[in-house]
Amino acid sequence: MRMRRITMLFGFFVLSVGFFLDMGACTAVQSELRITTIKQEPYTMSKGTQLEGFCMDLLSEVAKKLGFKYRVQLVKDGSYGRQDESGNWNGMIGEVVRGDADLAIAPLTLTAAREKVVAMTKPFMQTGVSILLRKDISEGTGFFDFLAPFSAETWVGILMAYLGTAACIFIVTRLSPFEWSQPQTEQNRFSFLHSLWYTAGALTLQGAGPHPRALSGRVTCCSWWLFTIVLLACYFSNLSSSKTSDATHLTVKGFDDLANQDVIEYGCLAGSSTLAFFKNSNNPVYRRIFEHMERTKSFVSSMDEGVRRAKEGNFAFIGESVSLDLAVARHCELVRAHEVVGMRGYSIAAALGSPIIKNLSVAILQLSEAGELAYLRSKWWASSCIADKAKSSAVQPHSLKGMFLVLSLGLGLGALLAVLELTSKSRRSAAEQKKSCCTVLTEELSLRLRASDANKPQENVDKDKEKA
Fold this sequence. Notes:
Elements: H1 2-31, E1 32-37, E2 45-47, E3 50-52, H2 54-66, E4 69-74, H3 91-98, E5 103-109, H4 112-117, E6 118-120, E7 125-134, H5 135-138, H6 152-175, H7 192-203, H8 215-246, H9 255-259, E8 265-268, H10 273-280, H11 284-296, H12 303-312, E9 315-320, H13 321-330, E10 334-336, E11 341-351, H14 356-369, H15 372-380, H16 401-433, H17 437-450, H18 455-467
Parallel strand pairs: 1-4, 1-5, 8-9
Antiparallel strand pairs: 2-3, 5-11, 6-11, 7-9, 7-10, 7-11
Helix pairs in contact: 2-14, 6-7, 6-8, 6-16, 8-16, 10-11, 16-17
């Protein structure tokens, strides 16, 4: 009896040890997960012997939260995962289904077909279907395109130059005694309103009389005339060149515009989920796009080929908006259409019934709420475009800085000549009146700057005398 009890205790001990050994072995296996991925910028890229990218950073953050180790391997056949006619899956989905990998992390689109054979997490990135084009194809004609030859800063500078010139003409014609010899009785021909009208007439090459008679006024006006000639030459040159290039532009802002034209060729990646979206859609516009691509066989074999053809022009590449945004960030001559349809998400795939899938979804949601996913997106989708090349044709203020400088010098010279003319007259008057030159000059300045309406009472007196 005692021997039987000892034997039973020994057997129980052996079973317990075996059980714990099995648990340890299982834990050891699960502690290092096999991860399959695919090379695609900027999700997964090679850096020496290591891999980097958005998906690698995401995997690192998720592993920290869940506390597991992993080993990353590239998918053998270089495919994402598609079901063939016999029902077998290839690519990363196939490796997860067959048990060759525990997880697949890549820009894997969450679809109904994939959800049937693997378990997929909450999406870590939202995307949709959009259009990639050259900027000159996507830009349309606006109501204020006639302002395009000059930048906004240049237009502000022109307005300031116009007002400054009108004010300078007004002051010069009042100060110069050769322009306004008798402020007490003679009416000044150049009021401020007339100075504005005269300056505007010169700007439109029409002219507006009367013209200045004094040297100071003529120097001021000649400076403005020279400025307007160069300004108008630059304006019409830029306007004509932009209109010539716009004549070949075609406005494409969305899928309706794309379907209703036959000038721009368009296509998508062969065998992609984008093609499946158009193929299975009941929308008549999307059906027309699919039928056109099927009829013309305008598919591309890779993302790089689609981007290259879009850069060459006369081709619109249809693809997932996230990938197109990356192409726009890398190639400044490209732009993505604002319209995005068929929203879907990128998810991590695991085997059906995998216990880790729930924890992965929770970790992804936590990263999203903490702003980590947005940070990773801005990190790997950073634009390399320093400036907008499409706006480089607009003339900037520094392009006309020489003419602005010439105009400023001309206005300053005209004002100086007006002061010298008035000083010369004041000297003669001071000698005749035996007064100080400064006193006479001060009286002249006070009279000319305040005499805007001084001549009106005299005019009224003269009219009364004529009536009497």
